[in-house]
Amino acid sequence: MAVKRRWAPAGRWLGVLAIVACTGTLARAELQVRDLTGTAVEGVGPYHQDVKDAIGAFAARDYKTALAHLQNAKKLTPALAPAEVMMARLYFDALQPRLGIAMLEAAAQSAPNDPESFVALAERALAEGRVTEAELLFPRIENLVEGFNQNPRRRQDLRLRAYTVGAAVDQFRGKLDAAKTKLESLIKLDPRNASAHEKLGRLLFAQNNPRGAYDEFKLAAQVDKNAVPAELVMATLFADQISAEKWLDHAITKNPDDLRTQLGAANYRLKTNEIEKARKHAEKALELDPRGFDSNMLVGLIARMDGDYAKAEKHLSAAHLLEPVNFVVLSHLALVLLELPDDASHLRALQIAELTARENPDNPDYLGTLAWINYRLNRKADADRFFTAAFNSRQIQTTQTMTSEMGYFLAHLAKDRGKPEEAIRLLRDALNTEKPFAYRRAAQQMLAQLTKSSDGSPEASSGSTKTGQQAR
Fold first, then answer.
1. Which has the least CB within 10 A, 184, 365, 392, 420?
2. Distance from C-alpha of 443 to C-alpha of 430, rounded to nearest angstrom
3. DSSP structure string for 8-42
4. 443 and 412 in contact (C-beta within 8 Å)?
5. How far apart are CA 182 and CA 167, in angstroms?
6. Alpha-carbon distance 427 to 444, whole Å?
7. CA–CA gap between residue 318 and residue 298 (Å, rounded)
């Protein structure tokens, strides 16, 4: 399995994370009527029962009846979005994106003058990295939105979404002035849009206007209590460590007992692989919010880095109970359970990994986790099958990248197959990162053993040099 490897830190370590229960089916929150009707209407109207019945029929996998209910709701209340758009929302929530896109395409055919299907298609294209598709859709969206007069509330919402799409495309293409204009228009329409303020701040920073950026980040934090404090955002944007540390210290000094500040500082330190400092801030966050999702999640992740698997399981499980829908931490939990001493935990690890891989069949990280768990449980045939699936995934074959964890897993496989030189190369590449890597110590020990057996050279066992050029 030869491939050019550019190693990346596992994206699992960043952002707001959650996990899914190991029950054999997804523990997803049931959608409410408001989730489908959005801002189109207020209160309870004649549409309400049909939309509620559609959600129930969809949950029972009676998709034809679900669509029929949505069509009737639209007939009773024309102010709603097209029935196919609402049906697409159900498919996307059920992790059936292809059917969701098909519904949006159907809406574009049946209601060509309604902008929402085109807006949703552009949003989906952006989310999946198809920027050109979103760019080509934007002019049509812009014309449709400006001419749309069926529902002023929907028109306002669609204009906001359209500006968001257009700004993202412009920024991706390097058209910063055009993106700035769209974001300013978005904020004019919705001054309390924290996301727009945050995006404008990042754009202003890219235009060498840090003061303006800081002002926008402060506005974002003012209107959204969950937004990252402005000082912490500034710390993440500066490339030079001195400026970043200055802003980080400013944030902590200014708000030492602010939960957002401690969580943000912990995330920042974790991202830069400063585990001791990350632990300090995560424990402070847990003290401030002992039953919080973010605080428990971070303490659990750091405990996994430390090899304290009992503590990791405790806090990741607590986070799971608070927010049970995220495959990223589900994968973390599986790997933590694998390290516990009892067979029941190992079985649960396998079940969780199987669920995660089943719901994300093209994700090499989750396939790799499932392969590793099978390998450790001496299910070698299954391990080979899932390692092969991970390696042949579109992501790895297209980007020629894989995570350090995957490299560590594959090094064990290479060693078992009597290929110590391949194992050594995999381990050196895996260690060639300054980013968090849960198996760093184990990889270093394995590399030392293999290199000593290979040639006895002390230099060979020292690991590889660090580099900042990681790619996801």
1. 392
2. 8
3. E--GGGSSS------SSS--PPPP-HHHHHTTS--
4. no
5. 6
6. 8
7. 11
Query: 15-24, 225-234, 293-302: which range is least confident on average?
Result: 15-24
Residues 372 and 382: their CA atoms lie apart, in Å, by: 10
Residue-level length of the chain: 472
- 3-class state of residue 324 by DSSP: coil
Sorted by sequence, the CB contacts under 8 Å of residue 337 that are 6+ apart come out as 313, 345, 346, 348, 349, 352
Q: What is the mean pLDDT of residues 276-305?
A: 95
Sign, Cα dihedral of 114, 118, 120, 121: positive
Give me the half-sphere count of Cα atoms (radius 13 Å) on the Cβ side of residue 184. Answer: 10
pLDDT in tens, 419-465: 999 999 999 999 998 888 999 999 999 999 999 886 654 444 344 33
Within 10 A of 240 (CB to CB), how many other CB atoms are there? 8
Q: How far apart are the first and last CA of the chain?
A: 20
The C-alpha atoms of residue 223 and residue 201 are separated, in whole angstroms, by 14
Residue spans of alpha helices (H) in 77-175: 83-93, 97-110, 116-127, 131-147, 152-172
Residue with token string 């890597």 = 437
Do residues 116 and 158 lie in contact, with contact meaning Cβ atoms separated by under 8 Å? yes
Q: How many CB atoms lie within 10 A of CB 353?
A: 28
pLDDT in tens, 68-110: 999 999 999 998 999 999 999 999 988 888 999 999 999 999 9
**Residue written as token pair 């968001």:** 164
pLDDT at 467: 32
CA dist 132 to 138, 182, 367, 384, 469, Å? 10, 18, 29, 37, 26
* pLDDT per position as a tens digit, 312-324: 999 999 998 888 7
Count other Cβ atoms within 10 Å, centred on residue 392. 12
> CA 190 → CA 40, 42, 160, 183, 230, distances in Å?
16, 19, 8, 10, 20
Within 13 A of 384's CA, how many CA atoms are on the CB side?
A: 5
User: Which 3-state string (H, E, C) describes 327-381?
Assistant: HHHHHHHHHHHHCCCCHHHHHHHHHHHHHHHHHCCCCHHHHHHHHHHHHHCCCHH
Report the C-alpha gap between 170 and 172 in whole angstroms. Answer: 5
Buried-exposed string 103-113: b where 16+ CB fall within 10 A, e elsewhere: bbebbbeebee
What CA–CA distance (Å, rounded) separates 164 from 169?
9
Three-class DSSP category at 211: helix
